[in-house]
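PROTEIN DATA CARD
Card holder: Membrane protein
Chain length: 534
Origin: Streptomyces olivaceiscleroticus
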Amino acid sequence: MPRRPLPSILSNRVPLARGRDFARTAADGASDVFHPLFVIGRGLRRLVGAGRQRWSATPRDRRGPALCMIVMGLASLALVPYGPLLALISLMAAAAWAGRERRPADDGPSESEAGRLRALYEALVPYLSFEGDPSPLYVHEGDWTAAFSEYEFDDDGRLSRLLMKYPVYFTDAEAPSRARIEQVLLAKSGRGREYHFAWDQEANQLLLTVLPALPTDIAAQRFVTAPGETVLGFTDAGAVQRTVPVAGATAETDPRDVPPVVWRTGPRSTESHLLALGRPGSGTTTLLRSVALQALAHGDVLVIDGSGSGEYAFLLGRPGVLGVECGLSGTLATLEWAARETERRLIAANRARQAGLAVPDDIRQPLWIIIDRPATLTHLAAAEGREDPQRLLQVPLRHGRAASVTVAVAEQFEGAELLSDPVRAHTRARVVLGPTSPEDVRAVLGATPETTPADQVPPGRGYARLGSGPVLRLQVPATPDPFDDATSEYHRQAVLALLPERSAQLGSVPAAADPSADPDFGFEYRTGTAPETV
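Structure generated from the sequence above:
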């Protein structure tokens, strides 16, 4: 006998899901409406329980007189005007007070928590105790409760927040002295986490807090920014005075607001150029891809891929992409055109201002020069006795702000020594990605972060500093190569959705180009929109 189909009410899951959501919403609303009744009911149960315990504790010979007094009191209350109403109101008030939610009393730290605090206190004694102090705050076998005024522990029993005092003669204005105390706290509080140290030099206090992990599920998307603003990544809440809405990791996840690290470029920017350094696999190429995708929305992009890995091939033929070069010859020609284009823009803008006219639109059109691994091309040019490609970046770096030309450079720490002086001097927006030491972060950013770098970090995780601003934690949005087989379908579609449709045929490599015969053979591409001089 053939099986009969299920009724539509059982086969259709959408109405069932909607019904569950409606029931859940109705239940939440009902709990809010009837919450006072729940509190009064809980209080009545507690009062009844307390009355039973009191009655059980009363001796038998006293129960009779007590019951008689209760009956007389109720009778006299009934004779008083509005007595029953007042009694009912008093009973409800007593029940509401008895049924309130009570916080458990703080009994202090447990034995294991007290042991951790004691060990931390003893570890700080050699650094915060001085001879000749008549009333030392830190002394061996001393009272740690006088030094640690506030403390919190997480579910695993590790310290998550600590407010400690230190002597007034401690040299908290010196960076090495603060670094020693931070290293001790890091070692005793547990590694594998990132800590924030807030030094209050006026009150002689140090607040240690454990920072939550930055979101790593934010993919490439069109961020809500103004022209001239680029989202480098995302940072901690409260570190910046701004949030942007971002889509979730999946289509079912609701959008949320996160604090971004916004890099502003243009004629009024003081950090017109960017330098990103990191270890292999730290996410510097991902950062440049994210910057290039955001730059395409308002300007033209020119990409130099010194590594020759072809990770920018998805940009070929797209409107606004002037070219993607990987070989030395193409790079030299492209950068020479970029230098001349910068000079042309400066001359045209100067003539327009002298004539009292507005700057032409083609001059105000932003031009982005994205350079990944320039040290590789410098080494190759030195081996072949050719011109250093970084020398051609002097004009865009020095005069790019007035000409609406922005340069973004990414390099690995191993090749940082080969970066030219103009690149080091004019890239005031700095990013460090990957696991790095505080010394390396200070050497690149010019300041030490107020947090401790973690040993294991996800790709795209690091620090950023814009000009002379504070050092911010940074998590770059996931922007992988859409042509990579290891890229998930969700991230591939997210990147492709930001690309404009191709409007020109890709140029083909000449058939006579033989890799064994031409040492400069590489991924040199031209798009139909590239200038003839490139």
